[in-house]
UniProtKB/TrEMBL annotation:
Organism: Armadillidium nasatum
Any single Gene Ontology cellular-component annotation: mitochondrion
Lyase keyword on record: no
Keyword Signal: yes
InterPro entries named in the record: CDP-alcohol_PTase-I, HAD-like_sf, HAD-SF_hydro_IIA, HAD-SF_hydro_IIA_CECR5, HAD_sf
Pfam families per the UniProt record, alphabetical: Hydrolase_6 (PF13344)
Gene that encodes the chain: CECR5
Domain of life: Eukaryota
Protein known as: Haloacid dehalogenase-like hydrolase domain-containing 5
Length: 462
């Protein structure tokens, strides 16, 4: 047993199964014989790697890494997912709300962190489901975000891109908040800006006031910022990704995410027009369309690793009840609605998805389980004052006795605060009100290794 595993055994504090499968006996003496007596079909159908029917969806931040630091049990957990040749033996995808990278860069980063070869086809970024909105590929889209936004948009299929920097170069007089940056004449190399036909919001930009100004200007003028503001309504289509209000980086408290930026945009639009901003697409977790897209990726990965029968059970492993748990539970409800209907069912957050062009035939998930990982904080011995945050309530400090591991202090947070009287609602506007049951995990574990261990035992897989 390696040192990480020994550490892991100390770290686990408890495991709660809220909706154990009826045939499942959760104790150390569990045996295939007992299972076969309870449900022989299930036992023989699930034993052995070639007959397993489950796939995994992993959140990244707070489950596998904290900032740029890999969490201690993650590499050992992933060793259980691969065979002796280093190939995945369980269909696995990574579902993150990050949006400022290309998928292959995230796959390279994951491969390095986990010591497992991850392919870009296993990575679902916040913006990945936008490839389903092909009716916008030939439209002139104004893109907001940071990082290689033009490249990301092109990779998704969008062909006519204008960036906020292009707008500022062509119309600098519209950007007035920072007095020191005020310009009245356009850059001599400024591109000619065609009429904008839609907005593409990838993630939080660097200069919020600049992006907010140009986005509102474009909406108010129906795509021609040199025209008269008419506040036409319905306004231009808006495709937005990543609605996280806050996210965890290395800082000692949560940081503003793209959800905070969208909140500003919604509030400004309402103030200046008196009307509600409408999203044609709002993708990334917890949107069902992100899980729909993730399921297609899981089924695809299953074929790729030699599993030719349908994957019927999905486990989504995450640390945030507002996104990972809520999102998987929403998808579970979507599947129930779809199963009970002969029509194609629209998804919340995907008004603009053209259902007539999607057959949904490749989707076979019947059982969806959300797995809450109670986060750990790893910090250096020299800075123990950087104590941990509650990833679920997002701003509660918890002080616990740490374990020392090499040169680090590791805290098991027990992040879910049962004593909390009032949980602030951080879910995006379009997903409110949230039913409390949709934020309840199916399974709660102490770390990602325990998540894998629990799932393998439930599925009788080793
Ligand atoms: Mg997370």
């Amino acid at each position: 047993m390696c040192s990480n595993i020994r550490l892991y055994s100390k770290l686990i504090n408890h495991c709660t199964l809220l909706d154990s499968l009826p045939f499942y006996s959760y104790n150390a003496a569990f045996s295939g014989y007992q299972a076969s007596k309870l449900n022989p079909t299930r036992f023989f159908a699930t034993q052995g790697r070639n007959f397993q029917r489950f796939g995994l969806l992993f959140d990244i931040d707070g489950v596998l890494v904290r900032g740029k630091k890999i969490l201690p049990t993650a590499p050992d957990a992933f060793q259980r997912l691969i065979d002796s040749a280093g190939k995945f033996r369980v269909p696995t995808v990574f579902v993150t709300n990050a949006g400022n990278k290309l998928r292959h860069h995230k796959a390279e980063q994951l491969s390095e962190w986990l010591n497992v070869e991850v392919h870009e086809d296993q990575v679902v970024m916040a913006h990945s489901p936008l490839k389903l909105f092909d009716q916008f590929f030939e439209k002139q889209m104004l893109v907001s975000g940071q990082g290689p936004v033009r490249e990301i948009a092109n990779n998704l299929g969008f062909t006519k891109i204008t960036t906020i920097d292009d707008m500022r170069a062509a119309y600098p007089q519209l950007d007035c908040v920072d007095h020191k940056r005020r310009l009245v004449k356009p850059d001599s190399n400024a591109p000619v800006i065609p009429r904008i036909e839609g907005l593409l919001l990838f993630g939080e930009p660097v200069r919020w006031e600049t992006s907010l100004q140009y986005l509102i200007d474009v909406l108010m003028t129906n795509g021609n910022v040199m025209g008269t503001p008419t506040s036409s309504y319905p306004h231009l289509p808006i495709l937005a990704c990543n609605m996280d209000l806050q996210w965890m980086a290395e800082a000692n408290m949560p940081r503003f995410g793209h959800g905070a930026f969208l909140l500003c945009l919604e509030a400004l639009f309402k103030k200046v027009t008196g009307k509600d901003l409408i999203y044609t697409a709002l993708v990334g977790k917890p949107s069902e369309i992100t899980y729909y897209h993730s399921e297609t990726m899981v089924q695809h990965h299953a074929r790729k690793i030699g599993i030719n029968h349908p994957i019927t059970t999905l486990y989504a492993i995450g640390d945030n009840i507002h996104t990972d748990i809520f999102g998987m539970n929403l998808y579970k409800e979507y599947l129930l609605r779809r199963r009970g209907s002969t029509k194609k069912i629209a998804m919340q957050g995907a008004r603009g998805l053209d259902l007539s062009t999607h057959d949904f035939k490749g989707l076979t998930a019947e059982n969806c389980y959300s797995v809450l990982v109670k986060s750990q904080l790893v910090c250096s011995i020299e800075m123990p004052q950087m104590l941990l945050l509650n990833f679920q309530s997002e701003c509660t400090l918890i002080f616990l006795e740490p374990y020392q591991f090499q040169d680090q202090l590791i805290y098991v947070t027990g992040v879910y605060n049962e004593n909390e009287k009032h949980v602030l609602e951080h879910s995006p506007r379009d997903f409110l009100p949230v039913e409390a049951k949709l934020q309840e995990p199916s399974i709660t574990v102490g770390c990602v290794y325990e998540a894998i261990d629990t799932i393998f035992r439930r599925e009788n897989f080793s």
